[in-house]
Amino acid sequence: MDKAGGRDLDSLLANALEAVFGAIYLDRGRRAAADAFRRLAVTTGEGDNNKGRLQELTQAEGAGIPRYEVADTSGPSHRRRYRVEVWLGDEIIGSGGGSTRRAAEQAAAGEALATRTNRGNAAMPASAHGNTPTRYGGSQD
Which end of the chain, N or C, is less surrounded by CB atoms within 10 Å? Predict the structure, then answer.
């Protein structure tokens, strides 16, 4: 499997990790599984949830709930790449890419959060005026 790049496939790694946490849960219970997850998240730095943080921020500001749309897919089926845009109302507030749709959504939300911070913590736009979407940032992979 490793010769075919299996070590780099997020879905295989996620399934293996799910099995490990499931085994910990069955053997030691929910608290032990949650503790193991927290330790792993801190160790790998993967504890960030940009989508959740962005949604909390936009709802707190009364701007609504962000929505995510796949803007582009590329590559062969075994090495697919996704480009996702995050919209708030009629405005594109971020975009990002990744090897899975979820990773691309997290990257897009991260860009939207970073753009907001770079704009001096101005309120997130509730919607655009007019028919043309407004882009904030829009980094490429």
Answer: N
Which phi and psi (to 5°) does residue 105 adopt?
-65, -45
Dihedrals phi, psi of 86, to nearest 5 degrees = -105, 130
Residues 6+ apart with CB under 8 A from 115: 93, 94, 136, 137
Written as one letter, the residue type at 34 is: A
> Is the separation of the CB atoms in 89 and 63 below 8 Å?
yes
Give the Cα separation of 100 and 12 in Å (integer). 12
Give the pTM: 0.56
74 Cβ contact list (under 8 Å, min separation 6): 80, 81, 83
Rounded CA separation 5/66 (Å): 34
Q: Are 87 and 66 in contact (CB under 8 A)?
A: yes
**Strand-pair category, 81-88 with 67-74:** antiparallel
Identity of residue 129: H
Token code pair at residue 72: 């582009």
pLDDT one-digit tens code per residue, 90-130: 999 999 999 999 999 999 999 999 988 776 544 444 443 33
